[in-house]
Amino acid sequence: MAKPSYTKDEIRKMAKDEHVQFLRLMFTDLYGTIKNVEVPISQLDKVLDNKMMFDGSSIDGFVRIEESDMWLYPDLSTWLIFPWGSEHGKVARLICEVYNADRTPFYGDPRNNLIRILDEMKELGFTDFNIGPEPEFFLFKLDPETGKPTTHLNDKGSYFDLAPVDLGENCRRDIVLELEKLGFDVEASHHEVAPGQHEVDFKYADALHACDNIQTFKLVVKTVARKYGLHATFMPKPLDRINGSGMHLNMSLFNEKGNVFFDENAEEQLSQEARYFLGGLIKHARNYTAVMNPTVNSYKRLVPGYEAPVYVAWSGHNRSPLIRVPIARGLSTRVELRSVDPSANPYLAVAAVLAAGLDGLKNKIEPPKPVDRNIYVMGEEERKANGIEDLPSTLHNALKALRTDEVIINAMGPHLYNNFIEAKRLEWEAYRQEVSQWERDQYLELY
Prior knowledge:
The protein is α+β, with helices and mostly antiparallel strands. It contains 13 helices and 19 strands. It has helices at 8-17, 44-48, 110-123, 169-181, 207-227, 272-283, 285-292, 298-301, 346-362, 380-385, 395-402, 406-432, 437-443; strands at 20-28, 34-40, 52-55, 69-74, 80-81, 90-99, 128-142, 149-153, 186-191, 197-202, 205-206, 230-233, 247-255, 258-259, 311-312, 314-315, 323-324, 335-337, 389-390. A hairpin with a 2-residue loop joins strand 13 (247-255) and strand 14 (258-259).
């Protein structure tokens, strides 16, 4: 299931044949933001031999200034030539892992950290963890004078609408074409529920390359949108009173025999391993929420009435719980975590859900009974009677939950965890000190 790699000679040949002039060496910081070091093609041999250094102290959450020299090790399977050129020639990219000056893996690099958790998975006898992401985004008009994003939508469409209502259709079609040029297997693209909201679904991949694909997808979407005078945002809830954007994660675990989650002789053909994995996801759900929903704004999406999950439960026939088990079986047997939003760092999010699921398998954690009713219409007492907990309602509460969970803390590793907690504590403190327009509208005249 892992993506095939290229040899150094194959990359040299492709770069020459396609007249590549620049290389982007890409990696991801603590917050999920793509960073890159751009070098001329003359540096290709140096890059391929892991001899490219950069200053890690300039990246948030990386290292202190006195230990700034770091190496970039490219993953050759991520070689890709961007379909849009520049006046100075074509640009290719390689996604890199970050290494310390002494050439040991740097575990403040979220990609390296995910590789660490995948190695733990392999030690338990599993071969692959496949992820099918469903990232949603909004398209807003750019201000023609300043070039800055506005909050003016480019359409009034809704779920699965067509042109002329969906004025973003041409932009979305262009995004799909660019993704296909890059080798993405796009399965569907459509207008989402909210005006200006869109989704493009692409085929699952092994966990590491699925996260790489999410990062590449975001870059393509933002780049193409600008050509149309639009700004694409993956902010979870850019506008009130309409649906926010999610990034559902469909996941399945494999060993040498195939999909571990499928058992044709089990109830609903869902294996005992799938149930234990599900049990782990449920047990740790409140505690990994800070990783899946890492911004103050994330919790404006996680409210009743806008399709996002709010309650910790699972079902095979119901879209209101946190986790859904789609009806597909065989190789396609999977579980879908619906709380994740696209502001999440994909490498951290996938490491956390994998660790939670593996904890379920190691400790044989049985999931609660599925909830096949609409949880949104249940009262608080009825939810309590059914053992259904609420997800944290604020970033502050989510961080408190995260601090209690050694499994998720270990899934992040000490460097990422400590920097994440401190950065998010500061984010919450800054938000807490702001007075919103809503508060002025509510209270200025009343009191």
